[in-house]
Records
---
Amino acid sequence: MKLEEKTLSSKTLYDGKIVRLEIDDVELPNGGSAVREVIKHPAGVAVAALTSDNELLFVRQFRYPFREVVLEIPAGKIDDKSTPPLENAKRELLEETGAVGFNYVPLGAFYVSPGFTDEVDFLYMCRVDHFEEQRLDEDEFVNVERIPLDKAVEMALNNMIPDGKTQTAILKTALLLKNV
């Protein structure tokens, strides 16, 4: 069975700083029709940065949609599509934690929530070389924490870290280091 859907029309309902909301009329594989709500996003990056003591760098920050403080690895959106994801990841790590990394290893990309958004996040692992000053955006407030990798794995497995990109990066990092 053919599974693809054909876009018949598309309308932008909102175009903001981070996302754009589009409503599409589509033709289904069986010839029927449906409406698809799609959030367009420029893509994101995230970094599992390990210190020489095998501690991962995390940031705690208030996440408005959930109205709670969330523990995450350093991450952010790709501001300029002409800049490779790795360069954006390096920028985010420095901005949020002040860390400068080396030996970056791609951990892959994943679809954040393919049912309603086209956001793709690119994950990386690196070692921390040294620290400089944080370069937070004016509307960004974070606390930096260091957590041993083994403890971070335990936290991810016990649902103490609800963020999907962070869970994925922690577990991939641990598996890669175990197999080295």
Note: The radius of gyration is 18 Å.
---
Amino acid sequence: MFINSGYYYKDLPQYEIIDSAPAGQILFVISAGHYKLLTLDFHNTVHTNRNDYQIIYVKSGILYYFEQGAEHTAEAGSFVFFKPGELQKYSCYLKDNTDIYWVHFSGSSAAMILQSNNLLDSRTVTIQANKRFEQLFNLMISNLQNRDAYTNSLNTLYIQELILSIAKEREVTNVKDKTTPEYLKAVQYINDHLSEKMSLPDIARFANVTTKTLTRHFEKNQGMSPMKYVNFLRIEKAKLLLQTNNSISQIANALGFEDPLYFSTVFRRYTGLSPEKYRKASEK
């Protein structure tokens, strides 16, 4: 097993379990490391009731971590976050070719920095691999191994850069997800066929993705399932059509609803009013 690690309190007994920053430190790196299984079939790490934060970077392979008694997985490109007081339990297997970096840090501003970057309550963040992540971990490890007067100041900068880089890359990844060709094709299909009967498999087939993948895209980008998005657009269009002289049945049919009563039910669900009451309110 390859291990490369550094500890700020390495001169003290039981330095590996020390989990607090010196008084007055706003952000302080306690320890950092890098390990990869070479011949050992399995490796397990368990920390209970630590008072610091931990960030684990999965460079390659799969990391298995535990939350509320259940096992979860984090794949290559993922960061796993643990907060003070949480069980920090994770493991990896040689068969997965797992290669990970980790850092323990604390300080009076640690929570604020994570919160301001929307990472305080994250368990995992999966983003595009970046060589800079490895560099930052290696810089922190090296500083801890060769501890001098500049170690704390430099590592404070490095851990901040790591947190900011994770937050920034996550935003970039989210924007890219919104503009994937498959997602755009699905949106195009919905808009082009809004007046026709359509199903989730119909949309997924046109976008050339599974229904599960399609649902994930819409829940992430629109905050709702694809079919809820379809009905949302239909109801928005119905609001305009209700300002014309078309009958409720004609409007329902024009929006792909075969049953006017079902159209009224969906319309009331989204607006709180029946189509008739909405029309009267609009006239006023």
Note: The beta strands are 2-7, 28-36, 42-47, 53-60, 62-67, 70-75, 78-82, 88-93, 99-106, 124-126.
